[in-house]
């Protein structure tokens, strides 16, 4: 079995197009067409973890944080932190792979897991993704519609949440007059032709646009297929960063902070807010979520729990929302368990391990 089969499975659960624009999820370096020998899962890559993977015969390392972001790096030299890891991985035929904001945003990913840990109910996405999908409208002669639909479904069109093969169709009349240079599939030159056509509508992931166009030209019988590709304003209600939901019952702030520390197994947190307010509606975002403070406030959260808040961010709690900074790592350290469980449940023909040499980069004293 080659490594690509594993990454393909992971991407079927958490597609790369779920990632944020700045991000660079997926392969960081290495050859995914080699046989897989074992997988090591970690939060943050390090040379120590690569050494551990070598000793345990794992040639795929999956981390949460990517080594390289979308803006890229200028050089790869062993003396740099990132360059050193890349050089070591390539020298030892190890593939480095990351699941970052794609797993944060996706269903069953980091933020869903976080919400589940806090036992939040009625969980919604705090910052739903937009522009993930576009709409295809295409008219096709009735007897050719099944072939075209099948080809479009095969490349990933018409999938919405847990449903695939989704489309809307309606019978109608299409008309055209081929000019003398045309080579019409139906009809004759210089004569108006009226054809029973099916009007198909389906959504597709935005990043597939090139394949959609190619598939239409390959499977539509007309010399000049008529189709529209439309941008959509719709938000994806199940995909995006952060979550918001309700606690089982209202809590005093001190009880809520204690509940966070106990549930997340943390010894310290920073917070700011009205000590006498009660907490029922809770917004969360694993990792660094200071960018969503305003959204949490706007959506009526009694508390917003995330990491990497700056000193001045805390003053936004004046609005009435308790702001709690649990730390960056502390809100997403469990993501490696999600990846580990995904692989363990699906694959039995190679070892999946969680790194035992990973150390916390930022500690508290
Ligand atoms: Zn992070």
What do you see in this structure?
By secondary structure, the chain is an alpha/beta fold. The protein has helices spanning 3-13, 47-55, 81-91, 101-105, 110-117, 145-154, 209-219, 253-264, 293-298, 335-346; strands at 26-29, 38-41, 60-63, 95-98, 121-130, 133-141, 168-176, 193-205, 226-231, 235-252, 270-272, 278-288, 303-307, 322-325, 351-354. It folds into 3 domains: 3-99 and 334-354, 3-Layer(aba) Sandwich (Udp-n-acetylmuramoylalanyl-d-glutamate--2,6- Diaminopimelate Ligase, Chain: A, domain 1); 106-129 and 237-331, 3-Layer(aba) Sandwich (Udp-n-acetylmuramoylalanyl-d-glutamate--2,6- Diaminopimelate Ligase, Chain: A, domain 1); 132-231, Alpha-Beta Plaits, CATH 3.30.70. A 6-stranded mixed β-sheet has the order 5-10-12-13-14-11. Strand 3 (60-63), helix 3 and strand 4 (95-98) form a beta-alpha-beta unit. The chain starts with a helix and ends in an 11-residue tail after the last strand. The model has no long low-confidence stretch (mean pLDDT 95). It binds zinc ion.
